[in-house]
Amino acid sequence: MKSQLNFILCLLSLTILSVFLYKACCKSLNTKYFNNTPKQHRINCVIKKIKADNCGIQKQSEEPSSLSSTACCIIEKNSGQILYKKNSFKKLPMASTTKIMTCILALENGKPDDIVKVSNYAASMPKVKLYMKSGDTFRLGDLLYSLMLESHNDTAVAIAEHIGGSVKNFAKLMNRKASELGCGNTHFVTPNGLDSKGHYTTAYELCKIASYALENKNFKKVITTSSYSFSNTTGSKQYSVSNKDAFLSQYNGAIGVKTGFTGKAGYCFCGAATRNNTTLISAVLGCGWPPNKTYKWQDTKKLMDYGFNNFSKVNFKPEEKTFKINILKGQTNFTNVKVFDKPCILMLSKNDEITYKIKLPSTLTAPVSKNDILGFAKLYINNKLYRQTPLKAEHDIKVVTPGYIRKILIRMLCVIPL
Protein backbone atom coordinates (compact mmCIF):
# COMPACT_ATOMS: atom_id res chain seq x y z
CA MET A 1 0.00 0.00 0.00
CA LYS A 2 2.80 2.39 0.93
CA SER A 3 4.67 1.64 -2.33
CA GLN A 4 1.51 2.33 -4.36
CA LEU A 5 1.03 5.67 -2.62
CA ASN A 6 4.61 6.62 -3.34
CA PHE A 7 4.16 5.68 -6.97
CA ILE A 8 1.02 7.86 -7.24
CA LEU A 9 2.80 10.80 -5.60
CA CYS A 10 5.70 10.31 -8.01
CA LEU A 11 3.38 10.41 -11.02
CA LEU A 12 1.63 13.52 -9.66
CA SER A 13 4.93 15.27 -9.19
CA LEU A 14 6.03 14.27 -12.66
CA THR A 15 2.81 15.55 -14.14
CA ILE A 16 3.25 18.96 -12.53
CA LEU A 17 6.89 19.05 -13.54
CA SER A 18 6.10 17.96 -17.08
CA VAL A 19 3.79 20.96 -17.57
CA PHE A 20 6.64 23.38 -16.88
CA LEU A 21 9.13 21.30 -18.85
CA TYR A 22 6.73 20.96 -21.77
CA LYS A 23 6.32 24.73 -22.03
CA ALA A 24 10.05 25.26 -21.73
CA CYS A 25 10.73 22.50 -24.25
CA CYS A 26 8.28 23.91 -26.79
CA LYS A 27 9.76 27.38 -26.39
CA SER A 28 13.24 25.99 -26.91
CA LEU A 29 12.23 23.95 -29.94
CA ASN A 30 10.43 26.88 -31.53
CA THR A 31 13.45 29.10 -31.02
CA LYS A 32 16.11 26.64 -32.06
CA TYR A 33 14.46 24.65 -34.82
CA PHE A 34 11.28 26.29 -36.02
CA ASN A 35 11.75 30.03 -36.14
CA ASN A 36 15.37 30.10 -37.31
CA THR A 37 14.90 27.73 -40.29
CA PRO A 38 14.46 29.40 -43.70
CA LYS A 39 11.14 27.84 -44.73
CA GLN A 40 11.27 28.98 -48.36
CA HIS A 41 14.74 27.64 -49.07
CA ARG A 42 14.73 24.91 -51.69
CA ILE A 43 17.14 22.32 -53.03
CA ASN A 44 17.52 23.20 -56.71
CA CYS A 45 20.60 21.60 -58.15
CA VAL A 46 21.91 20.21 -61.40
CA ILE A 47 23.29 16.73 -60.81
CA LYS A 48 24.07 15.80 -64.39
CA LYS A 49 24.74 17.69 -67.61
CA ILE A 50 25.74 16.06 -70.89
CA LYS A 51 26.60 17.58 -74.24
CA ALA A 52 25.79 15.36 -77.18
CA ASP A 53 29.06 16.05 -78.97
CA ASN A 54 30.92 14.70 -75.92
CA CYS A 55 29.11 11.40 -76.44
CA GLY A 56 30.60 11.00 -79.90
CA ILE A 57 27.51 12.20 -81.77
CA GLN A 58 28.58 13.82 -85.01
CA LYS A 59 25.19 14.29 -86.67
CA GLN A 60 24.33 17.95 -87.10
CA SER A 61 20.67 18.94 -86.88
CA GLU A 62 19.42 20.83 -89.92
CA GLU A 63 15.72 21.51 -89.90
CA PRO A 64 13.65 20.55 -92.96
CA SER A 65 12.86 23.44 -95.27
CA SER A 66 10.03 24.40 -97.65
CA LEU A 67 7.36 22.34 -95.94
CA SER A 68 3.88 22.71 -97.40
CA SER A 69 1.87 21.45 -94.44
CA THR A 70 -0.12 23.77 -92.20
CA ALA A 71 1.01 21.69 -89.24
CA CYS A 72 3.42 18.79 -88.89
CA CYS A 73 5.31 16.78 -86.32
CA ILE A 74 7.73 13.87 -86.10
CA ILE A 75 8.42 11.81 -82.98
CA GLU A 76 10.54 8.81 -81.99
CA LYS A 77 8.10 6.05 -81.18
CA ASN A 78 9.51 4.49 -78.00
CA SER A 79 10.31 7.71 -76.16
CA GLY A 80 7.63 9.92 -77.69
CA GLN A 81 10.32 12.59 -78.07
CA ILE A 82 9.45 15.33 -80.55
CA LEU A 83 12.22 15.73 -83.11
CA TYR A 84 10.58 18.48 -85.15
CA LYS A 85 7.35 20.43 -84.89
CA LYS A 86 5.49 23.08 -86.81
CA ASN A 87 2.16 24.22 -85.38
CA SER A 88 2.10 20.73 -83.92
CA PHE A 89 -0.33 21.65 -81.11
CA LYS A 90 -2.81 23.50 -83.35
CA LYS A 91 -6.28 21.96 -83.53
CA LEU A 92 -7.06 21.00 -87.12
CA PRO A 93 -9.40 18.61 -88.99
CA MET A 94 -7.63 15.36 -89.86
CA ALA A 95 -9.83 13.75 -92.54
CA SER A 96 -9.45 9.98 -92.90
CA THR A 97 -6.46 9.70 -90.60
CA THR A 98 -9.38 9.47 -88.14
CA LYS A 99 -9.68 5.83 -89.21
CA ILE A 100 -6.52 4.96 -87.27
CA MET A 101 -8.60 5.30 -84.11
CA THR A 102 -11.57 3.52 -85.69
CA CYS A 103 -9.38 0.57 -86.62
CA ILE A 104 -7.63 0.15 -83.28
CA LEU A 105 -10.94 0.32 -81.39
CA ALA A 106 -12.39 -2.34 -83.68
CA LEU A 107 -9.39 -4.57 -83.01
CA GLU A 108 -9.63 -4.04 -79.24
CA ASN A 109 -13.39 -4.34 -78.89
CA GLY A 110 -14.33 -6.82 -81.61
CA LYS A 111 -13.26 -10.14 -83.05
CA PRO A 112 -12.23 -10.87 -86.66
CA ASP A 113 -15.12 -13.32 -87.12
CA ASP A 114 -17.74 -10.90 -85.81
CA ILE A 115 -20.55 -10.46 -88.33
CA VAL A 116 -21.20 -6.82 -89.19
CA LYS A 117 -24.62 -5.95 -90.60
CA VAL A 118 -24.83 -2.87 -92.81
CA SER A 119 -27.44 -0.24 -91.91
CA ASN A 120 -29.21 2.20 -94.22
CA TYR A 121 -27.16 4.99 -92.71
CA ALA A 122 -23.83 3.25 -93.31
CA ALA A 123 -24.77 2.45 -96.91
CA SER A 124 -25.65 6.12 -97.49
CA MET A 125 -22.13 7.43 -96.85
CA PRO A 126 -20.48 9.44 -99.64
CA LYS A 127 -17.50 8.12 -101.56
CA VAL A 128 -14.83 6.96 -101.19
CA LYS A 129 -16.90 3.87 -100.35
CA LEU A 130 -17.14 0.10 -100.71
CA TYR A 131 -20.71 0.45 -102.03
CA MET A 132 -22.07 -2.02 -99.52
CA LYS A 133 -25.83 -2.47 -99.50
CA SER A 134 -28.18 -2.11 -96.55
CA GLY A 135 -28.67 -5.52 -94.99
CA ASP A 136 -25.37 -6.92 -96.30
CA THR A 137 -23.22 -8.78 -93.76
CA PHE A 138 -19.42 -8.96 -93.57
CA ARG A 139 -16.68 -10.33 -91.33
CA LEU A 140 -15.23 -7.56 -89.21
CA GLY A 141 -11.70 -8.77 -90.00
CA ASP A 142 -12.35 -8.29 -93.75
CA LEU A 143 -13.79 -4.81 -93.32
CA LEU A 144 -10.62 -3.57 -91.60
CA TYR A 145 -8.79 -3.88 -94.93
CA SER A 146 -11.54 -1.92 -96.66
CA LEU A 147 -11.24 0.71 -93.92
CA MET A 148 -7.47 1.16 -93.96
CA LEU A 149 -6.34 0.28 -97.47
CA GLU A 150 -8.93 2.23 -99.47
CA SER A 151 -10.44 4.38 -96.71
CA HIS A 152 -14.08 3.49 -97.36
CA ASN A 153 -16.46 5.79 -95.49
CA ASP A 154 -19.42 3.39 -95.48
CA THR A 155 -17.20 0.71 -93.97
CA ALA A 156 -16.15 3.05 -91.15
CA VAL A 157 -19.75 3.71 -90.17
CA ALA A 158 -20.70 0.01 -90.36
CA ILE A 159 -17.80 -0.84 -88.04
CA ALA A 160 -18.68 2.00 -85.66
CA GLU A 161 -22.30 0.89 -85.41
CA HIS A 162 -21.25 -2.70 -84.82
CA ILE A 163 -18.78 -1.84 -82.04
CA GLY A 164 -20.59 1.08 -80.40
CA GLY A 165 -24.23 0.44 -81.30
CA SER A 166 -24.36 3.84 -82.99
CA VAL A 167 -21.97 6.40 -84.44
CA LYS A 168 -22.63 8.68 -81.47
CA ASN A 169 -21.74 6.00 -78.93
CA PHE A 170 -18.70 4.96 -80.95
CA ALA A 171 -17.49 8.57 -80.93
CA LYS A 172 -17.66 8.42 -77.13
CA LEU A 173 -15.38 5.38 -77.22
CA MET A 174 -13.00 7.25 -79.53
CA ASN A 175 -12.86 10.26 -77.23
CA ARG A 176 -12.42 8.09 -74.16
CA LYS A 177 -9.45 6.36 -75.76
CA ALA A 178 -7.99 9.71 -76.83
CA SER A 179 -8.24 10.89 -73.22
CA GLU A 180 -6.54 7.71 -71.98
CA LEU A 181 -3.67 8.39 -74.38
CA GLY A 182 -3.26 11.94 -73.08
CA CYS A 183 -4.65 13.52 -76.23
CA GLY A 184 -6.52 16.45 -74.68
CA ASN A 185 -6.63 18.46 -77.90
CA THR A 186 -8.33 15.73 -79.92
CA HIS A 187 -12.09 15.30 -80.34
CA PHE A 188 -13.92 12.84 -82.57
CA VAL A 189 -17.43 13.18 -84.00
CA THR A 190 -17.33 10.73 -86.91
CA PRO A 191 -15.57 7.37 -87.43
CA ASN A 192 -14.55 8.22 -91.00
CA GLY A 193 -13.21 11.78 -90.69
CA LEU A 194 -15.73 13.52 -92.94
CA ASP A 195 -15.86 17.23 -92.18
CA SER A 196 -17.88 17.84 -89.04
CA LYS A 197 -17.95 20.63 -86.46
CA GLY A 198 -15.92 19.69 -83.41
CA HIS A 199 -13.91 16.98 -85.18
CA TYR A 200 -10.20 17.75 -84.81
CA THR A 201 -6.78 16.72 -83.56
CA THR A 202 -3.22 18.08 -83.62
CA ALA A 203 -0.23 16.85 -85.57
CA TYR A 204 1.48 15.82 -82.33
CA GLU A 205 -1.50 13.95 -80.92
CA LEU A 206 -2.09 12.18 -84.24
CA CYS A 207 1.47 10.86 -83.91
CA LYS A 208 0.68 9.67 -80.38
CA ILE A 209 -2.48 7.86 -81.51
CA ALA A 210 -0.57 6.17 -84.34
CA SER A 211 2.22 5.20 -81.96
CA TYR A 212 -0.32 3.47 -79.73
CA ALA A 213 -1.99 1.72 -82.66
CA LEU A 214 1.33 0.40 -83.95
CA GLU A 215 1.76 -1.56 -80.73
CA ASN A 216 -1.00 -3.86 -82.04
CA LYS A 217 0.48 -6.45 -84.41
CA ASN A 218 -2.83 -6.94 -86.23
CA PHE A 219 -3.10 -3.20 -86.89
CA LYS A 220 0.40 -3.23 -88.33
CA LYS A 221 -0.44 -6.27 -90.46
CA VAL A 222 -3.45 -4.51 -91.99
CA ILE A 223 -1.73 -1.23 -92.87
CA THR A 224 1.28 -2.95 -94.49
CA THR A 225 -0.82 -5.24 -96.71
CA SER A 226 -0.60 -4.29 -100.38
CA SER A 227 -3.91 -5.84 -101.48
CA TYR A 228 -6.70 -7.95 -100.06
CA SER A 229 -9.72 -9.84 -101.43
CA PHE A 230 -12.88 -10.86 -99.60
CA SER A 231 -16.62 -11.31 -100.01
CA ASN A 232 -19.78 -10.67 -98.06
CA THR A 233 -20.80 -13.54 -95.78
CA THR A 234 -23.20 -15.03 -98.34
CA GLY A 235 -20.50 -15.06 -101.01
CA SER A 236 -22.82 -13.25 -103.41
CA LYS A 237 -20.35 -10.43 -104.05
CA GLN A 238 -16.56 -10.34 -104.25
CA TYR A 239 -14.39 -7.36 -103.32
CA SER A 240 -10.75 -6.50 -103.86
CA VAL A 241 -8.99 -3.57 -102.20
CA SER A 242 -5.47 -2.22 -102.69
CA ASN A 243 -3.33 -0.02 -100.46
CA LYS A 244 -3.42 3.66 -101.47
CA ASP A 245 -0.47 4.53 -99.21
CA ALA A 246 2.23 5.39 -101.77
CA PHE A 247 4.69 6.07 -98.94
CA LEU A 248 5.06 2.29 -98.49
CA SER A 249 6.81 1.98 -101.84
CA GLN A 250 8.50 5.37 -101.89
CA TYR A 251 10.50 5.26 -98.67
CA ASN A 252 12.95 2.69 -97.35
CA GLY A 253 11.64 1.20 -94.10
CA ALA A 254 8.12 2.63 -94.45
CA ILE A 255 5.30 0.90 -92.53
CA GLY A 256 2.28 3.10 -93.34
CA VAL A 257 0.07 4.48 -91.70
CA LYS A 258 -2.96 6.39 -93.15
CA THR A 259 -3.85 9.00 -95.77
CA GLY A 260 -6.73 11.46 -95.67
CA PHE A 261 -8.45 14.25 -97.56
CA THR A 262 -11.50 16.47 -97.20
CA GLY A 263 -12.24 19.94 -98.53
CA LYS A 264 -11.79 21.42 -95.08
CA ALA A 265 -8.80 19.36 -93.91
CA GLY A 266 -6.83 19.30 -97.15
CA TYR A 267 -4.40 16.46 -97.77
CA CYS A 268 -3.28 14.72 -94.58
CA PHE A 269 -1.00 11.82 -93.85
CA CYS A 270 0.29 10.00 -90.81
CA GLY A 271 3.37 7.94 -91.62
CA ALA A 272 5.83 5.63 -89.89
CA ALA A 273 9.16 4.11 -90.83
CA THR A 274 11.77 1.94 -89.13
CA ARG A 275 15.52 1.93 -89.69
CA ASN A 276 18.24 0.42 -87.49
CA ASN A 277 15.74 -0.44 -84.74
CA THR A 278 14.49 3.15 -84.61
CA THR A 279 10.86 3.89 -85.52
CA LEU A 280 9.79 7.42 -86.36
CA ILE A 281 6.18 8.57 -86.69
CA SER A 282 5.17 11.70 -88.58
CA ALA A 283 1.97 13.61 -89.24
CA VAL A 284 1.20 16.32 -91.78
CA LEU A 285 -2.12 18.19 -91.70
CA GLY A 286 -3.44 20.63 -94.28
CA CYS A 287 -0.65 19.65 -96.64
CA GLY A 288 -2.00 21.26 -99.80
CA TRP A 289 -5.27 21.05 -101.68
CA PRO A 290 -6.02 19.77 -105.22
CA PRO A 291 -4.16 19.45 -107.46
CA ASN A 292 -1.22 19.24 -105.02
CA LYS A 293 -1.79 15.64 -103.99
CA THR A 294 1.91 14.80 -103.75
CA TYR A 295 2.83 17.46 -101.19
CA LYS A 296 2.03 15.13 -98.30
CA TRP A 297 4.53 12.56 -99.56
CA GLN A 298 7.22 15.23 -100.06
CA ASP A 299 6.78 16.68 -96.58
CA THR A 300 6.70 13.24 -94.96
CA LYS A 301 9.94 12.18 -96.63
CA LYS A 302 11.63 15.44 -95.57
CA LEU A 303 10.57 14.86 -91.97
CA MET A 304 11.72 11.24 -92.00
CA ASP A 305 15.07 12.13 -93.58
CA TYR A 306 15.54 14.82 -90.96
CA GLY A 307 14.85 12.38 -88.15
CA PHE A 308 16.97 9.51 -89.41
CA ASN A 309 19.89 11.59 -90.71
CA ASN A 310 20.32 14.08 -87.89
CA PHE A 311 19.71 12.17 -84.67
CA SER A 312 21.37 9.32 -82.79
CA LYS A 313 20.18 7.29 -79.83
CA VAL A 314 21.74 7.96 -76.43
CA ASN A 315 21.05 5.82 -73.37
CA PHE A 316 20.64 8.27 -70.50
CA LYS A 317 21.10 6.84 -67.00
CA PRO A 318 20.28 9.21 -64.13
CA GLU A 319 22.58 9.10 -61.11
CA GLU A 320 21.20 7.83 -57.82
CA LYS A 321 21.31 10.51 -55.12
CA THR A 322 20.02 10.93 -51.56
CA PHE A 323 18.96 14.33 -50.20
CA LYS A 324 18.35 15.24 -46.54
CA ILE A 325 15.25 17.31 -45.76
CA ASN A 326 14.78 18.95 -42.35
CA ILE A 327 11.43 18.39 -40.67
CA LEU A 328 9.78 21.11 -38.59
CA LYS A 329 7.48 20.12 -35.70
CA GLY A 330 7.97 16.46 -36.53
CA GLN A 331 8.69 13.47 -34.33
CA THR A 332 11.87 13.06 -36.37
CA ASN A 333 14.22 15.93 -37.25
CA PHE A 334 14.84 14.98 -40.87
CA THR A 335 14.02 12.53 -43.63
CA ASN A 336 15.99 11.28 -46.61
CA VAL A 337 14.66 11.39 -50.16
CA LYS A 338 16.23 8.98 -52.62
CA VAL A 339 16.39 9.93 -56.28
CA PHE A 340 15.98 6.77 -58.29
CA ASP A 341 14.86 7.52 -61.83
CA LYS A 342 14.49 5.14 -64.76
CA PRO A 343 17.01 5.25 -67.62
CA CYS A 344 15.68 6.31 -71.00
CA ILE A 345 16.64 6.43 -74.67
CA LEU A 346 16.97 9.93 -76.11
CA MET A 347 17.37 11.06 -79.70
CA LEU A 348 20.08 13.71 -79.89
CA SER A 349 21.85 15.72 -82.54
CA LYS A 350 25.35 17.13 -82.24
CA ASN A 351 24.55 20.43 -80.50
CA ASP A 352 21.95 19.10 -78.07
CA GLU A 353 22.48 19.29 -74.31
CA ILE A 354 20.86 17.20 -71.56
CA THR A 355 20.37 18.66 -68.08
CA TYR A 356 19.10 16.68 -65.10
CA LYS A 357 17.85 18.76 -62.16
CA ILE A 358 16.48 18.01 -58.71
CA LYS A 359 13.90 20.30 -57.12
CA LEU A 360 13.06 19.64 -53.46
CA PRO A 361 12.24 21.70 -50.36
CA SER A 362 15.10 21.81 -47.89
CA THR A 363 12.57 21.98 -45.06
CA LEU A 364 9.12 20.49 -44.49
CA THR A 365 6.59 20.93 -41.71
CA ALA A 366 5.06 17.81 -40.20
CA PRO A 367 2.87 15.91 -40.68
CA VAL A 368 4.17 14.21 -43.84
CA SER A 369 2.44 11.13 -45.24
CA LYS A 370 4.08 8.27 -47.07
CA ASN A 371 3.99 8.79 -50.88
CA ASP A 372 3.41 12.54 -50.55
CA ILE A 373 5.07 14.22 -53.55
CA LEU A 374 7.90 16.32 -52.16
CA GLY A 375 9.56 17.43 -55.38
CA PHE A 376 10.64 16.38 -58.86
CA ALA A 377 13.58 15.06 -60.83
CA LYS A 378 13.45 16.99 -64.10
CA LEU A 379 15.11 16.08 -67.39
CA TYR A 380 15.67 18.90 -69.89
CA ILE A 381 16.79 18.78 -73.51
CA ASN A 382 18.16 22.14 -74.63
CA ASN A 383 16.57 23.78 -71.55
CA LYS A 384 13.11 22.47 -72.48
CA LEU A 385 11.45 20.10 -70.04
CA TYR A 386 11.31 16.59 -71.50
CA ARG A 387 10.00 14.68 -68.52
CA GLN A 388 9.71 14.92 -64.75
CA THR A 389 9.57 12.19 -62.13
CA PRO A 390 7.89 12.82 -58.76
CA LEU A 391 10.01 12.29 -55.65
CA LYS A 392 7.91 10.87 -52.83
CA ALA A 393 8.14 10.56 -49.07
CA GLU A 394 9.17 7.06 -48.02
CA HIS A 395 7.65 7.16 -44.51
CA ASP A 396 4.97 8.83 -42.43
CA ILE A 397 6.29 11.60 -40.19
CA LYS A 398 3.93 12.51 -37.38
CA VAL A 399 3.67 15.97 -35.85
CA VAL A 400 4.92 16.65 -32.32
CA THR A 401 2.00 16.70 -29.85
CA PRO A 402 1.79 17.38 -26.08
CA GLY A 403 1.22 13.66 -25.58
CA TYR A 404 4.36 12.82 -27.51
CA ILE A 405 6.48 15.27 -25.50
CA ARG A 406 4.95 13.98 -22.25
CA LYS A 407 6.09 10.47 -23.14
CA ILE A 408 9.58 11.74 -23.91
CA LEU A 409 9.76 13.56 -20.58
CA ILE A 410 8.51 10.58 -18.58
CA ARG A 411 11.04 8.35 -20.31
CA MET A 412 13.83 10.79 -19.58
CA LEU A 413 12.92 11.38 -15.93
CA CYS A 414 11.67 7.97 -14.82
CA VAL A 415 13.50 5.80 -17.31
CA ILE A 416 10.15 4.21 -18.19
CA PRO A 417 10.19 2.58 -21.67
CA LEU A 418 7.67 3.92 -24.22
Key structural traits:
single chain, 418 residues, alpha+beta, five-stranded antiparallel β-sheet, four-stranded antiparallel β-sheet, 11 helices, 28% strand, globular
Task: Briefly characterize the structure.
This protein is α+β, with helices and mostly antiparallel strands and 418 residues long.
Please characterize this protein's 3D structure.
With 418 residues, the protein is an alpha+beta fold. It is 32% helix and 28% strand. It contains eleven helices and 18 strands. It has a five-stranded antiparallel sheet, sandwiched between helices. The longest helix is centred in the first third of the chain and has 33 residues, at 2-34. It is globular and about 95 Å long. The protein starts with a helix and ends with a helix.
Q: Give the overall shape, derived from the CA principal axes.
A: globular
How big a fraction of the residues is strand? 25-35%
* Overall pLDDT confidence: 87
Distance between the termini: 26 Å
Helicity, as a percent range: 25-40%
Structure annotation, total helices: 11
How would a crystallographer describe the biggest sheet? 5 strands, antiparallel
Given as residue ranges, the uncertain stretches (5+ residues, pLDDT < 50) are 26-40
Order of helices and strands: HEEEHEHEHHHHHEEHEEEHEEEEEEEEH
Rg, rounded, reads 31 Å
Give the strand order of the largest sheet, numbering strands 1, 2, ... along the chain: 3-2-10-9-8
Assembly type of the shown chains? single chain
Number of strands: 18
SS content category: alpha+beta
